[in-house]
Amino acid sequence: MATKDHWENIYSTKNEKEVSWFQQYPKTSMDFAELFSLQKDSKIIDIGGGDSHFVDALLEAGYTNITVLDISAKAIERAKIRIGKKAELVKWIVSDVTEFKPEEKYDFWHDRAAFHFLTDESLADKYVEIANAGIEKNGFLVLGTFSVSGPKKCSGLEIKQYSEASMSHKFEKYFKRFKCVREDHQTPSNTTQNFVFCSFKKEIE
Fold first, then answer.
1. Can you tell me the distance from the alpha carbon of 167 to that of 153, in angstroms, rounded to the nearest whole number?
2. CATH superfamily label, 4-8+40-202
3. With contact defined as beta carbons under 8 Å apart, do 135 and 204 qualify?
């Protein structure tokens, strides 16, 4: 797992269009929010949200109970500046997700490109337990990771690729797979990264 210092350095030295994960509009993530027919006051958390534009899209769509968690304080600071006054409507948490102790349960737990940095299986298993603790029964979990056809590194770090089957196996203790999709993400440098997004429903308390 990358250290906090690594990510603080990334967000201190690169602007948002210099990082490969930049998306102007997170269509796949928003499609899942619509698929789940969430209420506008549903509790939503974006894990590793950094300065992602997912929070912008959620606010624009009228969601009112949003939390963003990231290991980098600099990333969250950048997001707050970009969003402006609306940042006051969001709960911001600076934490390594593997040390996160949820104080509430969420209806929608979203993670695009954070989980795949947990190359140590014990940390990945810890993430599963933390997600279980932080998601309401019948709540939803969406994970986006590099697929087995995608890159093997991101931001100079090793990642773990996932297939629909391997991701489902990792979370089957508490979650039932709902829907998976593949996405070809075009980076700002015009390369293509293949992601697999899987959604799960928590059916075991």
1. 18
2. Vaccinia Virus protein VP39 (3.40.50.150)
3. no
- The type of residue at 197 is F
Condensed to tens digits (0 to 9), the pLDDT of residues 124-137 reads: 999 999 999 999 99
The reported pTM is 0.90
Q: Which of 147, 148, 153 is nearest to 195 (CA)?
A: 147
Q: Which two tokens stand for residue 81?
A: 């500046």
The torsion angles phi and psi of 186, rounded to 5 degrees, stand at -90, 120
Q: What interhelical angle do 73-83 and 4-13 show, nearest 10?
A: 40
Reported as a single tens digit per residue, the pLDDT across 114-123 is: 999 899 999 9
Percent of the chain residues past pLDDT 70, beyond the cut = 95
SS3 152: coil
Mean pLDDT of 144-165: 83
Q: Helix %, strand %, coil % for the chain, to 5?
A: 35, 30, 35
DSSP character at residue 39: -
